[in-house]
């Protein structure tokens, strides 16, 4: 009998199925972010939409994606990841092609809803499969699951960094928004073809009356899981300040928002460069609960530091400190949070739970963004103190979670 020994290398040696899922995340984000950064400008400048309508369209896209993750997760539990991922890819291709041609408000809304719903299908399927496969990899090799999930996260950030560069390159070469949409569609055609060939089949789960009745109790009445949802929500509400409070701070400090692009690039590069070594260190030294608490405390420190940093020539220092600390906190807590989900719910509900984690957090972001918006005109000390209190509250909640691991169930539905 052999004993699994932990993998302490720089990057875990992933099995073929995990490599496929990681490459999927990279490709998803590359295709998506080749289009998304240019959508608002296209709607406003290209189609002449009013500012409130541009905001509505972008909000609808977010709702159709994040808010419906729970639907994609439930479908993954019922039918397996393969048909859900393939359907999501087909819908994303159709949505990008439709958006490239859309010229009226109704057609644009229809296209962005389709694009968002496509992600609500394939993202929970891929994320729940990655979590399931990470548990199996941990059992077989001793490599902490957080390390595997960190590779997945870094691949997604690399795609988020490369996608806008791809879109910019197309624009520099004389293309337009329509060209970026079609390039995004081509990326997803490649993803669809690869997954149709490589993604394994999973036996369809039989529908039973008991399974349907047990659904609320297994997930939505599961107190530890709901606590994790609240903890993760505090992180996402905080992370969303990169798009809400950070632009206001940059404009206050410099008189414009031109430095935002560099700060966003800094965040993505930090994850690409530092995610794997940081998670390799933390996975062997910090229990998941401790990683959650520490990550949220680092995020809170970033908010608290903003009003303490100097103005004048160093006016961007508060914003840069916020981005660095928020990103470091994210790198600590996201793999830990994702790795805890398989411990808190039944394996047969992992897709639903993964989707619910994102949907509950998305709702919290919606409410939190509205509340933050009302505080943007208040004195800086008030705004940043309130924002720092959000992750600190999440850290306090995280302390109530169990620090241990349950014994993983044998994983027979994931094959290489």
List keywords for this structure.
about 425 residues; mainly alpha; 16 helices; about 75% helix; about 0% strand; disordered N terminus; disordered C terminus
What can you tell me about this protein's structure?
The chain is globular, with a radius of gyration of 21 Å. By secondary structure, the protein is mainly alpha-helical. Helix 2 (39-46) packs antiparallel against helix 3 and helix 7 (145-172) packs antiparallel against helix 8 (177-198). It has helices at residues 16-33, 39-46, 51-67, 69-79, 81-101, 105-141, 145-172, 177-198, 209-220, 223-239, 245-254, 260-285, 288-305, 317-344, 350-375, 380-398. It is 76% helix and 0% strand. The longest helix is centred in the N-terminal third of the chain and has 37 residues, at 105-141.
What is the structure about, briefly put?
This protein has 416 residues and is mainly alpha-helical. It contains 16 helices and no strands.
User: What is the CA–CA distance across the termini?
Assistant: 23 Å
Q: Which structural category fits the helices and strands? A: mainly alpha
* Secondary-structure element pattern, one letter each: HHHHHHHHHHHHHHHH
Helix content: over 70%
Strand runs, count: 0
Largest sheet: none
Shape: globular
């Amino acid at each position: 009998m052999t004993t699994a020994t932990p993998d302490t290398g720089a990057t875990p040696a992933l099995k073929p199925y995990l490599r496929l899922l990681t490459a999927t995340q990279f490709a998803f984000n590359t295709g998506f972010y080749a289009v998304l950064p240019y959508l608002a400008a296209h709607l406003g400048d290209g189609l002449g939409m009013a500012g409130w309508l541009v905001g509505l369209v972008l909000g609808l896209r977010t709702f159709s994606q994040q808010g419906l993750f729970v639907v994609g997760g439930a479908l993954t539990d019922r039918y397996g990841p393969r048909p859900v991922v393939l359907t999501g890819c087909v819908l994303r291709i159709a949505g990008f092609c439709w958006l490239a041609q859309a010229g009226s408000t109704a057609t644009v809304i229809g296209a962005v809803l389709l694009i968002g719903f496509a992600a609500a299908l394939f993202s929970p399927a891929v994320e729940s499969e990655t979590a399931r496969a990470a548990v199996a990899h941990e059992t077989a090799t001793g490599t902490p699951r957080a390390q595997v999930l960190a590779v997945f996260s870094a691949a997604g950030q690399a795609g988020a960094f490369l996608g806008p560069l791809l879109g910019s390159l197309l624009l520099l070469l004389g293309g337009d928004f329509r060209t970026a949409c079609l390039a995004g569609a081509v990326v997803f055609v490649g993803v669809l073809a690869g997954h149709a060939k490589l993604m394994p089949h999973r036996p369809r789960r039989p529908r039973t009356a008991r399974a349907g009745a047990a659904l609320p109790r297994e997930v939505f009445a599961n107190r530890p899981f709901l606590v994790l949802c609240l903890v993760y929500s505090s992180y996402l509400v905080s992370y969303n300040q990169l798009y809400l409070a950070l632009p206001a701070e940059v404009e206050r400090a410099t008189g414009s928002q031109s430095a935002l692009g560099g700060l966003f690039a800094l965040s993505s590069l930090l994850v690409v460069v530092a995610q794997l070594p940081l998670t390799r260190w933390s996975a062997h030294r910090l229990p998941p609960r401790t990683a959650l608490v520490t990550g949220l405390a680092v995020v809170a420190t970033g908010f608290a530091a903003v009003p303490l940093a100097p103005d004048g020539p160093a006016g961007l220092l508060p914003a840069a400190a916020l981005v660095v600390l928020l990103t470091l906190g994210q790198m600590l807590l996201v793999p830990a949070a994702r790795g805890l989900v398989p411990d808190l719910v039944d394996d047969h509900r992992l897709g639903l739970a993964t989707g619910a984690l994102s949907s509950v957090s998305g709702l919290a972001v919606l409410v939190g963004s509205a509340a933050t918006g009302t505080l943007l005109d208040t004195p800086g000390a008030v705004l940043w103190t309130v924002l720092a209190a959000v992750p600190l509250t999440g850290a306090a909640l995280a302390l109530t979670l169990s620090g241990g691991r349950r014994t993983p169930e044998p994983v027979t539905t994931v094959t290489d």
